[in-house]
Specification:
420 residues, alpha+beta, Aminopeptidase, Alpha-Beta Plaits, 2 domains, 9-stranded mixed β-sheet, 5-stranded antiparallel β-sheet, 34% helix, elongated
Amino acid sequence: MSTPRSADYDAIADRILAQADRLASCSEGPRDITRTFLTPAMADAHGLLSQWMRDAGMTVRCDVIGNLVGTLPADASCAAGQTPRRLLLGSHIDTVRQAGRYDGVLGVLVAIAAAAQIARTARRVSVDVIAFCEEEGVRYRAPFLGSRAIAGSFDLALLSRADDGGVTMAEAIRSFGGDPDRIDDCSYRGETLIGYVEVHIEQGPILELASEPVGLVTSIAGQRRASIRFAGAAGHAGTVPMAVRRDALVAAAEFVLATEELARETTGMVATVGTIEVAPGASNVIPGEARCSLDLRHQHDEIRDRGFAGLRETAERIAGERSLGVTWTDTDRADAVPMDAELTAMIDAAAGGGLPRLASGAGHDAMVMASLCPTSMLFVRCAGGISHNPAEAVLAGDVARALEVVVSMLHRVEEEASIG
């Protein structure tokens, strides 16, 4: 469903896409987009975003872990005698390696543009736009660092973790101008929060298949990850008969196919074996060891957990039948997170009603923010559902529609604050 849109939104959408192009140049390499936690590339991005936030009428600060926060405060006259409530908007600005230019970034730019549209109006509500510093987890293999600090759930033990260059997280924070001893200062706990809204490209094909520019997220799928090691016996490729081989790679291959079969047979489940490592790794040697990863996701935790347990039993069965050893190590778990029904309904009403609903298979900062306050997400259609890839693409008209929805929501929030 769509509603009439001012041509101004189309012009602003074009500007947002141009800003995304400029942010793409803030990269650790000249030939691709790679911008990881607290690197000079992120500092360059902060410089651009800070200026755009100020141009939108916001005050700007960088918190002690590296989140960039732009604030559009409530008018003193409108908030006289009371603590103004606060609405949070945002997304992340870090990237995977060799990324596209819209994952995370688009949500921050739409939020800044939306704040600019209400900057000259009387406001009883404060609006914070947060550019989270770390969602992907590339540099320290720990995702959601920025949002966990904001939500008051940061694991301080991570500060001693070192990156591939031997730099600890605490050292990186200090080098960026932050203070690892004051992570708790980032937390919004105790604030009077209306909620958190995140605009994000869908990273999947559902909206495109439905010919819809935007959609509302119902829930973010939970995920479980594991590392599996099959241990057999290496041997000469030309002399060991097939009947007595203990080939670890063949066992891993059988496990991969079993994983695919389970996901295909289970509605709503997705499963990925994204890495395989083989030792000794020679063309004329039978693999004596094979390690693989498992990423299993579903929007219902009990279905995902049942599948996860079943795959562990499958790995053990395969190893037993092939006289191999197997080691299964759980590496990560995130339960499914439903979006707030009331806040989601408000966004739908602001859009004129009838926005399509869909679940997110990817993780987002919204998963963490939901532990802090009511949270909702607005997805924007992306071409071919492609993401984490330089081929990421969005339509200017879809960006304009997302901006229109967010601005309408901000006006509705203000109206409700006036009534209250």
